Amino acid sequence: MFLPIGVGIFLAVLFITLLSIQFIRENIYEQLGQNISLEVHTISKMFEREKVLKLEQVKTNLNVIEENFKKADFSISNKKLQINAINQITNNTVKVKLNNWQIDGKDLLNNYEFVDNIQKLTGSTATIFQKIDSGYIRISTNVLDNNGNRAIKTFIPNNSPVVETIEKGKEFIGRAFVVNSWQITAYKPIYYKEKIIGMLYVGKNEKDLKELKKILTSFRINKSGYITVCDNEGNPVIFNKNENEIHKEIELVTKEKTKSKGIIRYYSETEKSDKMIAYQYIPDFELTVFAAVNLKKESEEIIDKIIFTSIIVGIIMLILLSVFVYFVTTKNLHTYLKQLEISNLKLAKAKEELEKTEKRFQILFNSGSDEVYVSNLYGEIIEVNTYACETLGYTREELLKMRWQDLKTSKFKQVVQQRIESIVKNGTLTYETEHITKQGKIILIEMKSRLIEYNQEQVILSIARNITERKAQEKQIINTIIETEEKERRRFAADLHDGLSPILTTIKLYADLLKAEKFNKTPKEEILQNIDELVSLALKSAKEISYNITPAILQDFGLSTAISEFTDYIKTTNSVEVDFSSSYNIKAPGIIEPVLYQVVKELINNTLKHANAKKIQLELKCENNQIILYYKDNGKGFNFKENLKSGNGLGLNNIVSKIKTIKGTCEFHSEKEKGMFVLIVLKIDENL
Q1: At residue 111, what are phi and psi to the nearest 5 degrees?
Q2: Is residue 141 classed exposed, middle or buried when 0-12, 13-18 and 19+ CB atoms within 10 A define those classes?
């Protein structure tokens, strides 16, 4: 009996060993890929650390330039200097007049003594800026332009993130474009008589690869690996390998531009071996780091050792398993019976655990906030959770005696079998229906049904959710929209009847006079002049009516321009101060922009009519595929909930309903004597 068992064990161990050897090579390659990816990631972190260190340095250097500037004797004379200022972005030139700044009794314009001392102290470039209408101009600097000259009289425009931050009275620390290159920078406002009149700057080159190049050219990975760094144009920046081979590897990495990191395997004709490359793109430096290794050199020694070890382990396993099988087959019946007893105990314990599991399932089944039903393919309910019983008013025993037709209203009874057939055919179905409670109340339900296996037969698991309240809200929104549209129609009719119609009637009267040639009391020339004036008035009235419906500027130039023109019109009335800012530069699809424009008009009209406000602040922007609208006034405020309850909040309700039609959210915040703040957020939906 031992002989066939021994032969079987030998063949099994031999098969497993051969199979293991077959897969070990790929496992080694996978591990090698992980290792070189980790090395590349570590080097990428070195670049990131370089940036962090520079940020810390410019923060410290900013304190140095600030302290030295405070210690210096700074003054502003009455003398005016007229110079040509150059925009560092567009290179456009504008003429500006500057106040003559002096430091330690010397004119600061074209005086580099202060900034050069800062560079000697800190190793950073330094600049003193003076504020002008177009931005901030360099009056003393050691930053160089493309020609190697000091970038004096160049200015940072007002739309720069640096200027926007300084104008808020804050420091700017981070990456910024300086004259002709990206720098790690720090800026701080200069105050004079509590006003910002300029700013101080220190900065360092973003890319300084000299030290990193020394480290990386001597860097080795395993036995055959090396590091290469290339720029976005595919030029090697750091390398220590045959240049032809490096260009081949850069070409392979460049083809993977859509991925920021990854692993590539290829066959090298130069080294006559498979090679592996792990790469990672560093966006801040616009560089790609990659490591390459020779797979044959890295794996041959390990594979030889593994093959040898596998043979030894296989022989040992064969001996041990043979001895084990021999002793197992010679054990007596007592051992067998003992094992059988242990198996019975384990079976009993497993049964106990199964019962506990079923109890836990029942707890979860009955703790949900949705109705859950299990029914057979004939529509008979065979299981139901507690929440369904509570919702319908039946006991579990009563529901288990019922069919789906017993719970449906008359219009849904006839489609029960049709829906069961659809679930059986497609495996799942989502639909709306109506249930009748034991008390006769009708509930609107959304059902999600799925075909499952239960007790070795196919059944239907259905989850029901009460949507009565949601449907009521949808109906309310539709009614509000209809009321709003009807209100607009009545207003349009009134504008035509009260505004345009009398003018046209008068024109017709004058036309009848001309036709009859009755000029006894009124000369013909005066009648023609009156008709001309009335026609102009009619055109103006028609234009105003058209603008009130949908302004042409909204269609031609977009939402931001339309709101800006409307707020400019409000300003001309001198009734309230309006501050409108916008970074919205897209064209939203469908009805989004007309609805938002009407909402802005309603908000402003409500403020003018009811709030007694002095100022309105309005901001429109677009971020992460979302449109965000902020509206604030400093009026007398109101209690939002009380207004809605009392019926005075119809206008506010209309605004909320309009925003819901374009799938947005609208939040009102207001207290008496504390003004009103409105936040509107909506995700851009191409289907609107």
Answers
A1: -105, 120
A2: buried
What tokens does 26 get? 């790929």
CATH number at residue 118: 3.30.450
CB proximity list for 275: less than 8 A, separation 6 or greater: 249, 265, 266, 267, 268, 292, 293, 294, 295
Of 466, 490, 522, the domain-final residue = 466
Residue 626 domain-assigned (yes or no)? yes
Domain match, 560 and 460 both: no
Q: Are residues 672 and 575 in the same domain?
A: yes
> Which burial class, exposed, middle or buried, applies to 440 when counting CB atoms under 10 A from its CB (0-12, 13-18, 19+)?
exposed
Q: Which amino acid is at 574?
A: N
pLDDT of residue 62: 92
Q: What is the pLDDT at residue 479? A: 64
Count of helix runs (H) and strand runs (E) in the chain: 20, 24
In a domain, 193, yes or no: yes
Query: Is 561 found in the same domain as 448?
Result: no
Q: For residue 380, what is the DSSP state?
A: B
Provide the CATH number for the domain around residue 415.
Answer: 3.30.450.20
Q: For 101-139, what is the HEC assignment?
A: EEECCEECCCCCHHHHHHHHHHCCEEEEEEEECCEEEEE
pLDDT in tens, 244-264: 777 778 878 877 766 778 888
Burial group, residue 98, by CB count within 10 angstroms (0-12, 13-18, 19+):
buried
229 closest CA partner among 292, 185, 176: 292
Q: Enter the tokens of residue 146.
A: 């493309």
Please state the rounded mean pLDDT for residues 121-137. 93
The whole-angstrom separation of Cα 665 and Cα 626 is 11
- Helix H or strand E encompassing 44: helix 2-71
Which of 152, 184, 205 is the last residue in one of the domains?
A: 205
Nearest to 628 by CA among 649, 669, 659: 659
CATH of the domain at 640: 3.30.565.10
> Which has more pLDDT, 124 or 360?
124
Residue 610 lies in a domain: yes
pLDDT bracket for residue 500 (50, 70, 90): confident
pLDDT tens digits, one per residue of 373-423: 999 988 899 899 888 898 889 998 999 999 998 988 888 888 888 889 999
CA angle, 553 then 575 then 550, to 5°: 20
Question: Is the model's pTM score more than 0.85?
Answer: no
Domains: count for the chain: 3
Relative to beta strand 181-192, strand 172-178 is antiparallel
- Is 211 part of a structural domain of the chain? no
Answer whether residue 1 shows pLDDT above 60: no
Owning domain of residue 107? 72-205
For residues 564 and 457, membership in a common domain is answered with no
Give the separation between CA 301 and CA 287, rounded to whole angstroms.
34
For tokens 């009755």, name the residue: 518
**Contact (CB, 8 A) for 587 and 560:** no
